[in-house]
Amino acid sequence: MRSYGGAAGGGSGGFKIYSEEELRKATNNFAADQILGRGGHGIVYRGVLEDSTIVAIKKSKMMEETETKEFLHGCCLEVEVPMLVYEYVSNGTLYHYIHGGKGLESNTALETRLRIAAELAEALSYMHSSASPPILHGDVKTANILLDGNLTAKVADFGASKLAPSDEAEIATLVQGTCGYLDPEYLMTCQLTDKSDVYSFGVVLLELLTGKKVICFDGPEQGKSLVSRFTTAMKTNRH
């Protein structure tokens, strides 16, 4: 659940070392009803600290190299794999905000959608150009974009990310990512580049502006991607 928001990313306030007991208390002993999400790399819990700050606490199966680069709220070092404490993002994912009836409907101000898109672009630009070494996300999608209480966007879930040597433009890797968002060139060559993230960002932008899912599961366009539907509509001058 690493996240980048704005130019510099990360949460606010100082970094703190927590005890395991503090995090157990914050999550009611890591209760099942406190789980925010599960992934291949661990489980994320909602927690309430003693000062009433709401946070997200990740119990990782392993510590990834990219994970240690993030500016965190804090961590716990009393366990075999450090537990990481992040700023809690109250509005969930952009995917659920678009498709779950929570707010990004047709009457949502265009300015709000464009602001979210601009924040995503800024975060990706920071990762690609300002982080040292640069970070290639590898799985940019609306389900990996979090929205805080002010609908500020944060790019999260770096399970497929790679640290790119500053003198190399691309990385040979097994293809990871999500159908509908994958860069076709990355899919064919297995070369992950910053352009792969930019392509996926373009799909997110389409999803954000149209409110349509990246893969159509019913109707005459069943099985077609949002990109193919959009390009067909552009060619036939449909909206």
TrEMBL record:
Gene Ontology CC: plasma membrane
Keyword terms: ATP-binding, Kinase, Nucleotide-binding, Serine/threonine-protein kinase, Transferase
Alphabetized InterPro entries for the sequence: Kinase-like_dom_sf, Prot_kinase_dom, Protein_kinase_ATP_BS, Ser-Thr/Tyr_kinase_cat_dom, Ser/Thr_kinase_AS, WAK-like
Top-level division of the source organism's lineage: Eukaryota
GO terms for biological process, alphabetical: cell surface receptor signaling pathway
Pfam family, one: PK_Tyr_Ser-Thr
Residues involved in ATP binding: 59
A GO term for molecular function: protein serine/threonine kinase activity
Residue ranges occupied by any Protein kinase domain in the UniProt entry: 30-239
Family affiliation: Belongs to the protein kinase superfamily.
Name of the protein in its database record: Protein kinase domain-containing protein
Native source species: Aegilops tauschii subsp. strangulata (Goatgrass)
Taxonomic lineage: Eukaryota, Viridiplantae, Streptophyta, Embryophyta, Tracheophyta
